[in-house]
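Section 5: illustrative case.
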């Protein structure tokens, strides 16, 4: 018969941080170790649920090693225009590495609804991953290139019928050009509601615009960026991502089965395999969704591999429980 502590360790190894945090006071009783375990569990749960607003919260992370906190801060979304460091606005590659780790963990745990939600988040911001090499950052509105406002640019021109952006995209883009001057509340509201639309709008500019303006004349290699942005837009329209929006037949609460997920991914890979970038999705690399890390790497024009951040949090948590 396993002890209660053994069960906590098993839960920690399954990344069940919320359960461990809730149960540890009953198992270990009050004390410094319980407080430390609860702190690490809170930190791990924020990462697992992709609560990027709070990745840099130091108040509940005193028992978390500095290296883990530093790696989490690289995925943090700044909460004010001037917050430093810039975290996920500096580079999205650490965030996509964490997304891949979360996707794989959710697959192993068969938390498929949460897994598809993570895939959906990845699809929304994938165009910014494509733009990062050209921008030199990950779509930070504080550092938009002046070329977006060049003479003849329609970027952010609300109601311009020659612009291929939707009305909501035009509104989001226009706000992105001035949000750096807004207070923290306005800045956070923009990221909650409009930043993902700006990501898609940027991709439309280089990959799908039927009447190009001067907004993208600053791009150093437009053909390369257009290809990667086109694949990013195509990924958002794949059967895998569409699982987020439609309940599969036979599942009353809209949770797909593992077989449905794998079938949707296989059809997605076939749909993406139209060019050298999309072809990377067909790689067999042992990942839960084979080829997804290779696809993200190709869109980013830089290696993006699954992180080990959650695995390292789990290992630290197990060490705390074993030392008690």
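Designed sequence:
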């Amino acid at each position: 018969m396993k002890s209660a502590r053994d069960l906590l360790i098993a839960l920690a190894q399954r990344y069940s941080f919320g359960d461990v945090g809730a149960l540890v006071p009953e198992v270990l009783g009050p004390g410094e170790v319980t407080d430390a375990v609860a702190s690490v569990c809170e930190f791990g749960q924020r990462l697992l649920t992709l609560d990027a607003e709070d990745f840099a919260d130091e108040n509940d992370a005193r028992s978390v090693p500095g290296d883990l906190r530093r790696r989490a801060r690289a995925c943090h979304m700044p909460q004010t225009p001037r917050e430093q460091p810039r975290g996920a606005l500096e580079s999205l590659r650490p965030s996509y590495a964490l997304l891949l780790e979360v996707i794989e963990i959710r697959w192993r745990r068969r938390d498929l609804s949460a897994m598809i939600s993570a895939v959906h988040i990845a699809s929304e911001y994938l165009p910014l991953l494509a733009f990062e090499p050209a921008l030199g950052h990950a779509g930070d509105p504080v550092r938009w290139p002046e070329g977006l406002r060049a003479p003849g640019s329609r970027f952010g021109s609300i109601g311009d019928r020659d612009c291929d952006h939707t009305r909501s995209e035009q509104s989001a883009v226009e706000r992105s050009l001035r949000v750096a001057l807004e207070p923290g509340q306005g800045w956070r509201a923009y990221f909650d509601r409009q930043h993902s639309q700006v990501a898609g709008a940027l991709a439309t500019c280089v990959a799908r615009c039927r009447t190009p303006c001067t907004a993208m004349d600053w791009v150093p290699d437009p053909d390369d960026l257009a290809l990667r942005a086109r694949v990013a837009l195509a990924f958002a329209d794949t059967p895998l991502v569409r699982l987020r929006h439609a309940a599969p037949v036979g599942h009353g609460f809209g949770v797909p089965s593992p077989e449905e997920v794998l079938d949707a991914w296989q059809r997605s890979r076939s749909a993406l395999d139209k060019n050298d970038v999309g072809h990377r999705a067909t790689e067999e690399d042992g990942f839960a969704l084979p080829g997804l890390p290779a696809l993200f790497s190709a869109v980013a024009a830089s290696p993006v591999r699954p992180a080990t951040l959650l695995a390292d949090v789990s290992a630290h948590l197990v060490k705390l429980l074993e030392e008690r």
